[in-house]
User: Fold these one by one.
Assistant:
Number 1:
Amino acid sequence: MTMDPEALRERAASALLAARDRTRLLTTCVEEPDLVAQHSPLMSPLVWDLAHIGNQEEQWLLRTVGGRDALRPDIDSVYDAFEHPRAARPSLPLLAPAEAHGYVADVRARALDILERIPLCGGPLLDAGFAFGMIAQHEQQHDETMLITHQLRRGPAVLTEAEPLPALVDGILPAEVLVPGGPFTMGTSTEPWALDNERPAHRRMVPSFLIDTTPVSNGAYQRFIEDGGYDDPRWWAADGWAHVREHGLHAPLFWRREGNQWLRRRFGVTEPVPPDEPVLHVSWYEADAYARWAGRRLPTEAEWEKAARHGPADGRAMRYPWGDEDPTPAHANLGQRYLRPAPVGSYPDGESPLGVRQLIGDVWEWTASDFLPYPGFAAFPYREYSEVFFGSSYKVLRGGSFAVDPVACRGTFRNWDLPIRRQIFSGFRTARDADPVAEA
Ligand SMILES: [Fe+2]
């Protein structure tokens, strides 16, 4: 992405504007009581996310990049995510909704003024408009978080889809794809708005493996349930087994059984579980157990990225499975365009050269891997972005979901969460080692 300064400025401004449009939608579609309420102890009140978005923008774009005086230093502590866990945020002295809307609008006007005036070069925060891209991604990530809050909220539907999902499945696909062994380039040193944990690019040796062509579907997951998957400790990691027993889990979050049918709640609507959609709202433990039941395993993070980015013809690492072009609606289900993942096998235009589909968009995919730094990692611009999360507590998710905006989604993008979490838009696909005979 080499761009002249004007094109860069326009890209940064439009990324910020797109994020703000979405923030506005998510914070004006409910009344004030729903903005200040905590809908789940796992989530912040929506009005906390809103003002936190503005506070981060103020700290980075106005104070650090623009060198301006602090607008509201008195609220920095209230909106510091590390100072206050989500469960404690409703009791903080939060800005009221109207005040929060006014604050974020004021910050944004000043940020756009700085963007107009400042050279987009001369340091890592300014080069290619990184700080502006980082803040647009931050806002979009909170928009995804707020969409999760909407999914957890009880009450009638307030979000609607502009259009129904198009029919994009184009025939019978092979169940799995062989990815030949050998080295590939993981991570990036060139993607201008990539975050610290995606860097630097480095070579990895990955032996041959087979990976599912598509994410695991609801229908396939139902077979695991009906086969007694939740009642059989053979399939579960020890911690996972203890967790499902303690909490009485027997299906993905938001599912319930009525007669002989599975129903799910989706943004305020209860509907039959569609068997052909990727399974959604499963924990890492559930994904891992399903894979073992199926005689398979979760892909490692390196396997996932190789399937998504490695060009087998020239050995080059691509930005996306389909090449280097930014995502379009034909490539992937991103950006909250729809409020659901597309049926498995959709998006032929987004498939990898080897034929793997829906790696980008639809559902975040759990991988087998812990969240660890790449060799040569350097924290930037602050340790709390990634470094404090490295270790064996968190598992990596890849590829983004229907709730992720293209600005915060790349073949190199890494997400992480605790293995028990399932309020997130998480699914998975499975893999296995290649059979040496079949591969020869
Ligand atoms: Fe944040």
Number 2:
Amino acid sequence: MSPSVLPCVKPPAIYLLDTIPGESTEVVVLNRKKRKPSTVKNKSHPNATTVHTQALREQVTPGLTLAASTAPMEGAGKYNAFAQVQAAGIASAQPILIGAAQRADLPPHGVTVVIVDYGSSEGKNSLSPMRNVIQALRARVTPEVAISVTHTDLPANDFRGLFSLLDSSCESYLQEQQNIFCTATGRSFYEKLFPANSVTLGWCSFAAHWLSRVPVSIPGHIITSKAGGEAAVELKRQAATDWSTFLAHRTNELRPGGRLVVVLTVRDDNGVAGTDEMLCMINSVLQDLVALNVVREDEYARMMVPDYTRNLGELLAPFSSALCQQDLTLHQHQIVEIDDPVWKSFQLDRNPDTLLNSYVGLARAVWFPALLAVLDLDRSTIERSAIADLLESRLRQQITAWGSDSPVFRVKEIIMEIVKNN
Ligand SMILES: C[S@@+](CC[C@H](N)C(=O)[O-])C[C@H]1O[C@@H](n2cnc3c(N)ncnc32)[C@H](O)[C@@H]1O
């Protein structure tokens, strides 16, 4: 897409940035700049304007500010290296996933069996579930029948890392069997991603609690669960809309009798989500950085982790609506507490450095990109990485102060097996 200069951009305009790993894909310009950015109209978002990032960077004046929606995980192998808590959660979900692959209705003989991995990130955590699913399906179809796996994620995801891993890892499903194909789709799963009735088995782990957008900001906090009053209502509504939208698109894409297994963090009956402790520590470090004039107040005010951990009622709600009941059945769901693997290893090796590196590495890979995506556009790359490094080192101190008597993460996950009705 080549930009053409439009005569004028009137605020408040929404800018969809070119996709760059680790950066926001949607930003709202809050302050007007004097010169005009290079822009093109965005066809799929009629009210939005697409701006080429570099063009915007070069033309912004200091003080231009942005509000983020979602950002992918940190790339270059960082998510893969540190997503151990998620890996432990996935291990617990494998029996249900394998069962779903054994139970899913297959396409007519000879037609490619389509598997989709929604929200794959860099893919390390997808290798084992995809290998198991392929094995279960291969036991049901002859070797001449092709099986395809498509990994999906946000456009700015590190797909290069994903493909390198698929190509080189001895754990890759491509190493084991013949007639297996892999592809990727860089589009939000809140959009229609595949032709109707084409997917036999869908898998989505630790991704569908990321909202499509954060409609509010919360004074003094970065996590959605700290919202009160009207902001809390607005977030609840956004989370309900996103969950229904996600299910509606998957319903369309699944073949009749096809199955979808979704793994999500779940808020317990006391309203607690197992990632709250870590996120509160990050928030407190950010407040320190504001006090030290490292992070600007406006920047902090825009920072939000676009994650909403739903409770069981919110997760089950769509399945009791008449529309959903007609198309989908929740075959089973199970809530499991993830045994924090980082803390478990610490119980064995008592190595505080490994514990700290693992916790901080996870926080940096998962949450820092969304937070840092809203730094002012006049921040240089060097400044951005200096802020990330400072955030990281101060978080290290916070975790040290937390002590190692109990795990930082006490995450409960829900595993849902959903069937598209025949
Ligand atoms: C915590 S990672 C989970 C990755 C992997 N499935 C796992 O279990 O380790 C969440 C992933 O969801 C992706 N994601 C968030 N919102 C998304 C959206 N709207 N569409 C597609 N992917 C999304 C993120 O970019 C990220 O890669």
Number 3:
Amino acid sequence: MVLGVPDNAECLNSSGTETVTYQSDRPVSVAEGRSVPYLELRHVSRSFGSNHVLEDVNFKVMSGQTVCILGRSGVGKSVCLRILMGFLKPDAGRVIAAGEDTTDYSEEELRRIRQKVTMVFQNGALFDSLTVWDNVAFPLRERGALDEERISPVVDELLEMVGAKHIGGLLPSQISTGMKRSVAIARALAAKPKAVLFDEPTTMVDPLMARRLGALIEKLKLQLKLTSVVVTHDMRLAEKLADHVVFLDRGKVIFCGTPAEMNRSRERIVQQFLQLDRLDLRALVGTIDHPHRMLG
Ligand SMILES: Nc1ncnc2c1ncn2[C@@H]1O[C@H](COP(=O)(O)OP(=O)(O)O)[C@@H](O)[C@H]1O
Ligand SMILES: [Mg+2]
């Protein structure tokens, strides 16, 4: 329970004057009526040449919470994740990951952070030449902390958790996009992270698989108390998972709040997203009730 923190605490006020000291492994403090964010972008800007992708972007994710980042294609959602992971440096602003200011961290320091904060890429980024089982075992073997006898039950359990135990012997090329994502999630969890960043987990999969992946991410949040950031343009997924939604448009956070607040938002882009989603839903319900409409 976070005491005395308003609902929209994940959105930094515009003055950004709040001062919080970040220390590694410091317990979340509520003594001063606020807690330390686990992940945060603070006044972050990033350009590629003349393409000003992010301009003074602020949001934070508290421990155990899920924040969904929404916005049009090309708006900078993946760039936000890559900045949080330290794969990209911001031109200005500060980056907090695992409760530490990682902005100026070296590769070596970032590797330590990436044991706690990991990312599931849109394409899964599995090793093509390894079976599903060996892909999930990879982070465990790489670390060298466990012998093969101990690795085996951990891998089995992870595959079971994501509903992929039956495909352990297959190669990534032999399984569907949705299953690749599930396996990528299992592999990410093998490193026992505290936070996982998901890049469009339900894009390019069928609606049933999308729902399964959404349920899986929700399960991880509830059972493992994972902190997560989910980049998506799937409004239903955001409504299901998000404690807070961050809406990006033209380089800025144009909305930040709970899904309920998002539904009431008067921002034009947010409204457009919501309306499109309702149309989608109506079309879908229509085809279920009246399958012949699919042909019309
Ligand atoms: N490494 C890069 N070099 C140049 N431009 C990039 C790079 N990464 C991203 N961009 C640009 O930044 C913008 C945002 O990209 P991205 O974050 O991938 O969008 P999305 O919101 O769809 O995830 C795009 O215009 C993209 O072309
Ligand atoms: Mg992207």
